[in-house]
Design a protein that fits this description.
The complex is a heterodimer of chains A (88) and B (146). Chain A has 3 helices and 4 strands. The radius of gyration of chain A is 23 Å and the shape is elongated. Chain A folds into 2 domains: 33 residues, no CATH class; 46 residues, no CATH class. Chain A has 88 residues and is an alpha+beta fold. The longest helix of chain A is centred in the middle third of the chain and has 13 residues. A 3-stranded antiparallel sheet of chain A has the order 1-2-3, with no helix packed on it. Helix content of chain A is 42%, strand content 26%. Chain B has a single domain, classed as BH3618-like. In chain B, strands 1, 2, 3, 4, 5, 6, 7, 8 and 9 form a 9-stranded antiparallel sheet that branches. In chain B, a hairpin with a 4-residue loop joins strand 7 and strand 8. Chain B is globular. The chains are: A alpha+beta (88), B alpha+beta (146). At the A-B interface, helix 1, strand 4, helix 2 and helix 3 of A face strand 3, strand 4, helix 3 and strand 5 of B. Strand 4 of chain A pairs antiparallel with strand 4 of chain B.
């Protein structure tokens, strides 16, 4: 891992068009500003990892999906959805 | 966001619709998926890899289950998906049934936004929206395995 020391207000450049600024340091928290081209999405790492985990954890077979839906729908689930609507 | 009519468009196509995800889906390895309706008449869909059809993810029309769900589509994403009018937009959320159907959760924080005319889609993260990655679909139902 490349390690760089930066002072408040200084920045680094990644590739041709991504710039990361160190805006503020308070205790153990650093505030970063990121300039990136459209299409480059910036995430907090823990959110990105949670999303990856959620997507891969949701994988199932279509047979299983059909089985679950047929088992629970329509009568049961109509009722559940109806109850849900009432709650909200 | 008007989504029901667009979801009906998907439902009307028995063989499913093939949708491009040029930005992929985090944690998954494909960029082309087929959206089908596993059980007609319900707000549930199924997203399977166009090139690896054996696995996929169950989807739900979030507006059918959470009437108050709403978010603003950023201009950036609307541009990326070539969305020019609301009628082109379908929104579906992934459903996780790994803990059983009764405990199923929907990913409301990262809905899949589809331009149903251009067949372009992206999983959009609603940063700081307060919506959950694992919103229980049936919060009043006691979990009983399935």
């Amino acid at each position: 891992m490349l390690v760089l020391a930066r002072k408040k207000g200084q920045s680094i450049v990644i590739g041709n068009n991504i710039k990361v600024y160190l805006l503020e340091v308070t205790g153990e928290t650093a505030r970063l500003g990121i300039e990136a081209p459209p299409g480059i999405e910036v995430f907090r790492s823990e959110l990105f990892e949670a999303l990856m985990e959620e997507n891969s954890g949701a994988l199932t077979s279509s047979e299983e999906a059909v089985r679950l839906l047929k088992k629970n729908l329509p009568a049961n689930n109509d009722k559940k959805l109806g109850e849900l609507e009432k709650e909200r | 966001m008007e989504s029901a009519a667009v979801c009906e468009q998907i439902s009307s196509r028995h063989e499913g619709v093939t949708v491009s995800f040029p930005w992929g889906m985090p944690g998954l390895d494909q960029d082309r998926y087929i959206v089908t309706v596993p059980v007609p008449g319900m707000p549930f869909y199924f997203l399977r890899g166009a090139d690896r059809p054996e696995v996929g993810i169950m989807l739900v029309n979030p507006f059918a289950v959470f009437r108050e769900y709403e978010f603003d589509l950023s201009e950036e994403v609307a541009g990326q998906l070539k969305i020019t009018e609301p009628g082109q937009v379908a929104v579906l959320c992934t459903v996780n049934t790994s803990r059983g159907f009764e405990s199923a959760t929907a990913n409301m924080m990262a809905p899949i936004v589809i331009n149903i005319e251009k067949m372009l889609a992206r999983q959009v993260v609603l940063h700081d929206s307060g919506y959950s990655l694992r919103q229980p679909l049936f919060p009043n139902t006691e979990a009983k395995g399935e």
